[in-house]
Amino acid sequence: MAAVTDQMAAPGAPAIRRTPKGTFDIVFRNASRAAALFVLVLLAGILASMIIGGWPAFREFGFGFITSSVWDTQNEQYGAWPAIVGTLSTALIALVLGVPLSLGIAVYLTQLAPPWFKRPVSTTIELLAAVPSIIYGMWGLFVFVPLFAAYVQIPVSNIVEGIPLLGTVLYSRSPSGLGILTAGIILAFMIIPFIASITRDMLEQIPSVLRESAYGIGATTWEVVRHVLVPQAGVSIIGAIMLGLGRALGETMAVTFVVGNANRLSASIMDPGSTIASRIANEFNEAMGLQLNALIALGCILFFVTFVVLVIARILVARVKSF
User: Using an 8 Å Cβ cutoff, are 238 and 320 in contact?
Assistant: First the structure.
């Protein structure tokens, strides 16, 4: 066989040298394995420390810690339900507002924007992704909140007052501009650059022959996007959305500035509220005893919520791949 291989080789071609496994290959393999194991060990250590720190609160209040709405530091009574609802509400509002805008930006930049306009918009999106969260929070508190109170909360409250359902969900008892909806809007501004930039990159990676073929058989731009681009980049789009959702769930400083930090549960998204991250940020520095354990337990709940989001993302990705 070796003789046949030598005869088939082109004259003058360099011979293929096969070298046995060397020291560098073994070191590289072991270093890569150690890096992967380090991530697992680090995650296990973080989870174990949070469970140990939050266990006294879970032991003291049981399942009532999750369902209770009381947060009384004087009487050592703690409940996580308002913070959980606030976290999920702000993240949901951010997705509802941010995902359509992000997808629209990505489609426009890849399909419709002229070259002279595409570059500055793309650069702006990347710059917005690099803005620190505290800057979003300060801008939201000093600029957005007064405008939102004057031009949205007060007029909307006057319109919906007394209307069933709308008068409950959109009515503000104290239109100061702070609230769950305000925090959700700020989070939407924060996740748009991430989702838009990732989706844009994925759409640009789709072979142009697919788009040209669709245009060649008479498809419109909408049909190309709906039936060619989105199915091809569906997995990446879901990943980008889940990345934005993960940031929205865990965002601390920006939300702390604008959510109002009220330890109560309200049916109106216009009223102040709190999230898990904002409550931890406000109280962790001075917390002691059972209060500290309760805050760490809130961190455990946030970790669990993030894990559930990851599982849902995996399921959605698997379903998209199966089509």
Answer: yes
**Contact, 133 vs 256, CB < 8 A?**
no
Residue 256's nearest CA partner among 176, 169, 182 is 182
What is the maximum span of the chain, computed from C-alpha positions, in angstroms? 93
Q: Which of 127, 252, 248 is nearest to 190 (CA)?
A: 248
End-to-end Cα spacing for the chain: 45
pTM attached to this predicted model:
0.86
Residues of the chain below pLDDT 70: 1-22, 321-323
Give the burial string for 66-91 (b: 16+ CB within 10 Å, else e).
eebeebebeeeebbbbbbbbbbebbb
Please report the pLDDT score of residue 276 as a whole number.
93
The backbone torsions φ and ψ at residue 200, rounded to the nearest 5 degrees and listed phi first, read -60, -45
CB 242 within 8 A of CB 308: no
| Alpha-carbon distance values, 174 to 177, 186, 260, 270 (Å) | 8, 20, 11, 9
